[in-house]
TrEMBL record:
Belongs to the oxygen-dependent FAD-linked oxidoreductase family. Residues 70-249 form the FAD-binding PCMH-type domain. InterPro entries: BBE, FAD-bd_PCMH, FAD-bd_PCMH-like_sf, FAD-bd_PCMH_sub1, FAD-bd_PCMH_sub2, Oxid_FAD_bind_N. This is FAD-binding PCMH-type domain-containing protein. Residues 1-29 form the signal peptide. GO terms for molecular function: FAD binding; oxidoreductase activity. The gene is LOC100833798. SUPFAM superfamilies: FAD-binding/transporter-associated domain-like (SSF56176).
């Protein structure tokens, strides 16, 4: 099949798909593969028997926990090089009852972009790694970035094109994929000054469950609201690219990293750090890595050391930051410097390779009331002294992120949030894991009185299936996921916005084609659901 005909074919499939059953009860894998082979170049489809299947599958897996002999693998991996291939995958998938999982950077904490919890699920992976262009419009300070780019590639391109004048407020780890990151929020060191990544998204191109390419105006305001933080991941469609607003940064930024041990009073210094909030300028972000018997305070300041030091002396003298600790560099250098270490360079932002040696488990909390110093002391003595203990990463909120109203985007952790806690634990190839996972669960239970309540909030990008999983109602694969059951985890991630997300889902994908263990369930009123079942009754008797 010649490539040039593929988009014409894709269009005719869109037409026919209106008349085909929603999702046949029995997936027809052979017909699906046949359909793909007719609509896109064969060398972009890797079945389990292709020699490169495993290397493509593993290429962006970040947690080896989901690369074992028992991990449920996709029927095939589709690696689109053109939007029309993404459309074709959706159209073939719907016709032949094969669901899709979308992968951009593969950093999902539960591996939902490339594996399933259910052994019987037949699914294909659409891996967007080849759709990764970044185009900067320096005249309007905006950019279009494809989902398959990493945030490191985005940062590098922005700095190059703007001569270090512009930046983008998103996460710290350069290998994170733009696709997953922007769909769940995107917290990074510029969040106090400029908000989250989603607060700076101005348009997007998305392939919906009918295989259409929609933008901000054609998808409608409810869906455009939903994809900016609603964990679009497997819920609303496949986002091909995002238009983002770039933000100004000074040519020189300052950073310091200061560790205080428990013996040096880390508990008291942490207690003070929690309450700095508005005492610090929004140009200053200080995160804390709490591990073993110490707390490491790492900062980014949009200004020089000469400006930063007096601010630190006045607001946070307990930390004892002085000129020796402070380093100046460009913003684009600060990301690898802080995340990868002092010898890393801006070019390291382009390195997509990471090691597959570290197994991990994570979960999260938001803190709205300062945690007493005595509790911090107990955290050091009772929890971080254990040999199997892990890490807490504390990201301060406030500033621009806190000013956005709770319902303006699906991300509800806004005004009143002091900081986010990410709990992580690690183990290696040589086994282990049981003690580390037990530690994280027990520590999470211990923290309950000190963190947000009703609901206990969690960050969707730090996905944790232990918070709850979807329940499919009705006829097996033809059923839809239950809204009531989804509330268990959904209200932790989205609070009151969960209902509106479920309504947006019903608008764009009422048949629940895009779904996974934690996708947004469609909220369909009873009558509509009965009608829909009647219309497709023949498909469900198979
Ligand atoms: C080492 C590490 C560091 C991290 N640091 C930060 C940080 O500093 N700040 C922060 O906010 N988060 C951070 N995260 C979390 C990160 O933001 C999320 O894991 C994010 O979802 C990863 O995006 P991805 O594209 O790499 O993941 P993927 O695994 O590819 O996708 C994640 C989810 O989104 C879906 N998805 C992916 N692409 C698309 C698309 N184009 N359209 C629709 N759905 C899609 C997937 O199906 C999956 O459900 C970190 C994660 C790791 C592993
Ligand atoms: C995708 O295909 C269409 C139609 O064949 C073409 O116009 C477009 O330039 C292609 N895009 C890319 C990124 O190759
Ligand atoms: C900065 O503080 C450290 C202790 O944290 C100290 O060793 C160093 O001498 C100080 N440097 C200056 C220039 O005061
Ligand atoms: C890319 O990163 C990997 C993992 O950290 C490292 O082993 C490799 O040397 C890096 N490659 C380059 C070209 O720097």
């Amino acid at each position: 099949m010649a490539l040039s005909r593929s988009s014409k074919l894709a269009l005719s499939f869109i037409f026919f798909s209106c008349f085909s059953p929603v999702i046949p009860s029995l997936a027809s894998s052979d017909d699906f593969l046949q359909c793909l082979s007719e609509t896109m170049p064969n060398n972009l489809v890797f079945t389990q028997s292709s020699p490169s299947f495993t290397s493509i599958l593993v290429s962006s897996i970040r947690n080896p926990k989901f690369f074992t002999p028992t991990t449920v693998r996709p029927l095939c991996i589709v690696t689109p090089t053109n939007a029309s291939h993404v459309q074709a995958a959706v159209i073939c998938g719907r016709r032949h009852g094969v669901r899709l999982r979308v992968r951009s950077g593969g950093h999902d904490y539960e591996g939902l972009s490339y594996r399933s919890e259910r052994a019987e699920e037949v699914f294909a992976v659409v891996d967007l790694a080849s759709l990764r262009s970044v185009s900067i419009d320096a005249a309007t300070d905006t950019a279009w970035v494809d989902s398959g780019a990493t945030i490191g590639e985005l940062y590098y391109a922005i700095a190059k094109a703007s001569g270090d004048r512009l930046a983008f407020p998103a996460g710290l780890c350069p290998t994170i994929g733009v696709g997953g990151h922007l769909s769940g929020g995107g917290m990074g060191m510029l969040l106090r000054k400029y908000g989250l990544a989603i607060d700076n998204v101005i348009d997007a191109k998305m392939v919906d469950a009918e295989g259409r390419i929609l933008d901000k105006s054609s998808m409608g305001s409810d869906v455009f609201w939903a994809i900016r933080g609603g964990g679009v991941g497997g819920s609303f469609g496949i986002v091909l690219s995002w238009q983002v607003k770039l933000v100004p940064v000074p040519p020189t930024v300052a950073t310091f990293s200061v560790r205080k041990s428990a013996a040096e009073g880390a508990a008291g210094i942490l207690a003070k750090w929690q309450e700095l909030g508005d005492l610090l300028p929004e140009e200053l972000f200080i995160r804390v890595l709490v591990q073993k018997q110490g707390a490491n305070f790492q900062s980014l300041y949009l200004g020089t050391c000469a400006e930063l030091l007096p601010v630190m002396r006045a607001a946070f003298p307990e930390l004892g930051v002085n000129a020796t600790h402070c380093k100046e560099m460009t913003w684009v250098q600060s990301v690898p410097y802080i995340y990868l270490g002092a010898t890393a360079t801006a070019e390291d932002l382009l390195n997509r390779t990471t090691s597959l040696d570290t197994f991990s488990k994570a979960t999260s909390d938001y803190v709205r009331q300062p945690i007493p110093e005595a509790v911090w002391a107990e955290i050091f003595t009772a929890w971080l002294a254990k040999p199997e203990s892990g890490l807490m990463i504390l990201d301060p909120f406030g500033g621009a992120t806190g000013r956005v109203p709770e319902c303006s985007t699906p991300f509800p952790h806004r005004g009143g949030v002091l900081y986010n806690i990410q709990y992580m634990n690690f183990w290696g190839k040589d086994g282990g894991g049981t003690a580390q996972v037990k530690w994280i669960k027990e520590f999470y239970a211990f923290m309950e009185p000190y963190v947000s309540k009703d609901p206990r909030e969690a960050y969707v990008n730090y996905r944790d299936l232990d918070l709850g999983q979807n329940v499919v109602l009705g006829d097996g694969d033809d059923g839809v996921t239950s809204y009531e059951d989804g509330k268990v985890w959904g209200e932790k991630y989205y609070k009151g916005n969960f209902e509106r997300l479920a309504m947006a889902k019903a608008e764009i994908d009422p048949d629940d084609y895009f779904r996974n263990e934690q996708s947004i369930p469609p909220l369909i009123c009873e009558k509509k659901q009965t009608l829909r079942k009647a219309a497709h009754g023949h498909a469900q008797t198979v």
